[in-house]
């Protein structure tokens, strides 16, 4: 008869102490970083070897009782399928680990109004030490601020919460100057169907800079950045329209492939017949042929600032808001304006 499998149980500090032949207090000192001169390096190494052999992981719940701090930060985003958010999460987790914290992802459905309550409840219940909310509306930020809980807003500029985000003006101005220098005076914009400030800011920054240089946005279309068929349909309609332009500016890199496809269907070459500029500098931008000229949104820098700000708020500080400069990455999709436009 097969021996019954014993139920799993977590390895404890007592198990490590028994194997290393030390007291449990010595194990606690080693893994709390407080051993100092109280534990010899030889003994500390024996404790670490025993822990590795047993697969021991320090109990964060026990540490929480001593410090009153939960080493987990929630990152609430709207659409986890978007590459930018995947990159933001990856970099945030790396930065948090450097500070002995972890980051967990919390998704929000479009139109969901209860996500702020869910986030607040997770903090109140002790599951999260604090949170980073990406792209809350003004009303949502006000609701989170009213709780008095440690929450940071990404890509929202106001007084409700400590904020981190991008300054779109430098990068969009560079894009405008590049297009004007190449002789483009009329451009079209293919935008995401999203009225959040992060998109409104980038559109306004480009339009203002291009207009100041004597250029004009002659056509605008809106579509979904995550529905490729819808984006292709919108790009086709834009290129088939009566308005004249020699370049298309996409407010999200994800829309650029739709413009490429619509142009190819008409026998137009990018950039010889139609220049294209994106926003984001996603990995996709380098993979396209030709490689996309785009305004870089540094996800790693945003993650670093967001985690640092969140940890400051958790420590009852009120960090100043941070706005990160954007910059143009010039690749292969802008050329001299085609004679006569389209």
Automatic annotation (TrEMBL):
Keyword Zinc-finger part of the UniProt annotation: no
Domain named HTH lacI-type: residues: 11-67
SUPFAM superfamilies: lambda repressor-like DNA-binding domains, Periplasmic binding protein-like I
UniProt keyword annotation of Transcription present: yes
Pfam families named in the record: LacI, Peripla_BP_3
UniProt xrefs under PROSITE patterns: HTH_LACI_2
Keywords, in A-Z order: DNA-binding, Transcription, Transcription regulation
Top-level taxonomic group: Bacteria
PANTHER family, per database record: LACI-RELATED TRANSCRIPTIONAL REPRESSOR (PTHR30146), TRANSCRIPTIONAL REGULATORY PROTEIN (PTHR30146:SF138)
Protein name: LacI family transcriptional regulator
Organism: Actinosynnema pretiosum
């Amino acid at each position: 008869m097969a021996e019954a499998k014993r139920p799993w149980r977590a390895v404890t500090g007592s198990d490590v102490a028994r194997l290393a032949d030390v007291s449990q207090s010595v194990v606690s000192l080693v893994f709390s970083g407080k051993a100092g001169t109280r534990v010899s390096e030889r003994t500390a190494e024996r404790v670490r070897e025993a822990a590795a052999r047993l697969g021991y992981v320090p109990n964060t719940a026990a540490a929480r009782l001593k410090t009153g701090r939960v080493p987990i930060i929630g990152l609430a985003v709207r659409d986890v399928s978007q590459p930018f958010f995947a990159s933001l999460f990856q970099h945030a987790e790396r930065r948090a680990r450097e500070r002995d914290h972890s980051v967990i992802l919390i998704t929000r459905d479009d139109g969901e109004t209860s996500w702020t309550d869910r986030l607040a409840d997770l903090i109140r219940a002790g599951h999260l030490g604090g949170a980073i909310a990406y792209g809350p509306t003004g009303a949502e930020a006000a609701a989170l601020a009213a709780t008095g809980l440690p929450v940071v807003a990404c890509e929202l500029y106001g007084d409700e919460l400590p904020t981190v985000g991008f300054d779109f003006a430098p990068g969009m101005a560079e894009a405008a100057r590049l297009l004007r220098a190449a002789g483009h005076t009329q451009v079209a914009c293919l935008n995401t169907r999203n009225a959040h400030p992060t998109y409104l800011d980038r559109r306004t920054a480009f339009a203002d800079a291009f207009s100041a240089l004597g250029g004009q946005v002659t056509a605008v279309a809106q579509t979904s950045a995550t529905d490729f068929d819808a984006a292709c349909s919108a790009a086709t309609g834009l290129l088939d329209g009566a308005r004249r332009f020699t370049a298309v500016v996409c407010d999200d890199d994800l829309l650029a492939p739709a413009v490429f496809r619509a142009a190819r269907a008409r026998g137009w070459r990018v950039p010889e017949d139609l220049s294209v500029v994106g926003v984001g500098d996603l990995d996709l931008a380098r993979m396209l042929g030709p490689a996309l000229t785009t305004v870089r949104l540094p996800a790693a820098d945003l993650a670093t600032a967001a985690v640092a700000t969140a940890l400051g708020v958790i420590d009852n500080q009120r960090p100043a808001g941070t706005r990160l400069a954007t910059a143009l990455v010039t690749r292969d999709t802008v050329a001299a304006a085609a004679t006569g436009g389209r």
